[in-house]
Amino acid sequence: MGSGMYGRQTDDTYAHAGFGAAARRGARPAIVVVDLTNGFTDPAYPSGSDLSDVVAATATLIEHGRAAEVPVVFTTIAYTPAEADGEMVTWLHKAPGMRAMREGSPAVAIDERLPRRPCDTLVVKKGASAFFGTGLASVLTGLGRDTLLVCGATTSGCVRATAVDAVQSGFSVLVPRECVGDRAAGPHEASLFDIHAKYGDVIGLAEALDYLAEGVRSHV
């Protein structure tokens, strides 16, 4: 893997353990945009930060995906009043700031800077992973997808959880670095290191666009 982020000893330990091999790249990808909603991309919200660069990079990825006829799935966290105000969602005891993610509020709306279309699937979730308690795996299987380009926020939370569940559900995972973000640099970088070591490939946006373009060429 050789990132050097935590020093040579860490790299050697991970290499000895057999981590960091390249992920398999399938021929039928999908783009999964995790929680790029106002509540995460707008710093006016307590849970948000300025993710303008992440939104712009993800928009570029989506537009290139359209040319390759790659389906796009968006996710949002949204709680009913009973969930947001009650005791039933255990996660909200640990992360009470998430109670602001209420159904129908601007916080849970997809950032309007993203090129979302009516044909794009929207997955409403209650936890970190886009797979937990949702029908995402069935949707992707029904579409015949084998590889996921995972974008979104936050890297250390919902993106990482989605990457873990994706590979456990049988999908190869690619994470374009420019298309994910977090409210703090340390957790962001640590999570990218962890994803790349164990669950998927962290790649540059240029490589992701080349991968999508290869799909276009294969259909010509």
Describe it.
The protein has 220 residues and is an alpha/beta fold. The chain is 40% helix and 15% strand. Strands 1, 2, 3, 4, 5, 6 and 7 form a seven-stranded parallel sheet that branches. α7 links the parallel β4 and β5 (172-176). The radius of gyration is 17 Å and the shape is globular. It starts with 7 loop residues before the first helix and ends with a helix.
Question: How would you concisely characterize the structure shown here?
Answer:
It is built from nine helices and seven strands.
Number of strands: 7
Q: What does the main sheet amount to?
A: 7 strands, parallel
Order of helices and strands: HEHHEHHEHEHEEHEH
Task: Figure out the total of helices.
Answer: 9
Shape: globular
pLDDT average, as an integer? 94
Helix content: 40-55%
Cα gyration radius (Å): 17 Å
- Taking pLDDT < 50 over at least 5 consecutive residues as the criterion, the unreliable ranges are none
Q: What is the terminal-to-terminal distance?
A: 35 Å
β-sheet strand percentage: 15-25%
Query: Which structural category do the helix and sheet elements fall into?
Result: alpha/beta
Helix/strand layout:
Blueprint: H1 8-17, E1 29-34, H2 38-41, H3 52-67, E2 72-77, H4 81-85, H5 91-94, E3 121-125, H6 136-142, E4 147-153, H7 155-168, E5 172-176, E6 180-181, H8 185-198, E7 201-203, H9 205-219
Parallel strand pairs: 1-2, 1-4, 2-3, 4-5, 4-6, 5-7
Helix pairs in contact: 3-9, 7-8
